[in-house]
Amino acid sequence: MRVINIAAAQMGPIQRADSRAAVVMRMIALLDEAKRKGADLIIYPELALTTFFPRWYMEDQAEVDTWFEKTMPNEAVQPLFDRAAQHGIAMYLGYAELTPDGHHYNTAVLTDRNSTIIGKYRKVHLPGHDEFEPARSHQHLEKRYFEPGDLGFPVWRNLGGIIGMAICNDRRWPETYRVMGLQDVELVLIGYNTPSVNSLKSAEGLQQRLLHNRLSAQAGAYQNSCWVVAVAKAGVEDGHHLIGGSLIVNPDGEIVAEAATEGDEVLVVPCDLDATRFGKQTIFDFARHRRVEHYGLITSRTGAVPPD
Ligand code: CDT
């Protein structure tokens, strides 16, 4: 058995007026609870330090940049890194990254037990739009504020396992998991902020969005025989509702823990990475069963093209 005690640290809403320092205090409280429950690794949501600012239309780039972190850790976040190192807990932390040469990414970092950053992922699949769209019930301006990630889907050895990262909308795309599956990934970590309503389809509500969240994580876990941990920022943020439903899924695609609230809540589950081996050596033994000669369209074509 190779057990990692995983803490899915769901966060309740962060309001636009909340300071980084106040948010970090909440994150440290979740970290302390995770420690009491024996966690080795804690996963926080996407953009965990701020409100989900892409719902706001902004034209002033200086204002936009106030939502981004220029260094990681920085002064506001250092207490979280310090406490994690003190507890010996590794971390997945999502935040908005502004690089020294002016690039903007929706990013997550992975730390080891000493709070040393050992991995960085930049969100590849950016949903939404890049201009104000009055027909929508709310804006989702990720395409305006972020560039698509430029790092691909790497995996890292950490805590005795092989760990990969994705961010929110990435979880809906099978390619996300498969590229990591082809690197023998055992544990995929995902943070998310998902509005409970579809801004263009009022009939799609909370229950359907929770269903899609489960479907995506369960399919990714099963089809790649890996653990998937998906962690929400939830509840009513600046008047806009985000789904909760943080969950931990085993390599058989079964949900082993799911958040019960839309607030700050920690789920801790012992996850045996050796449980990934059976599926990887049988039905999803990629080396024996995949037929890449038939998969060319996956990388040669982006949009669907109907037959003549
Ligand atoms: N943050 C994020 O990626 N949210 C999207 C909302 C999709 S609707 C534009 C998601 O896939 O959950």
Automatic annotation (TrEMBL):
CDD domains: DCase (cd07569). InterPro entries: Aliph_Amidase/BUP, C-N_Hydrolase, C-N_Hydrolase_sf. Signal peptide: none annotated. It comes from Bradyrhizobium denitrificans. Transmembrane segments: none annotated. PROSITE patterns: CN_HYDROLASE. Pfam families: CN_hydrolase. GO terms for molecular function: hydrolase activity. Keywords: Hydrolase. Residues 4-275 form the CN hydrolase domain. This is N-carbamoyl-D-amino-acid hydrolase.
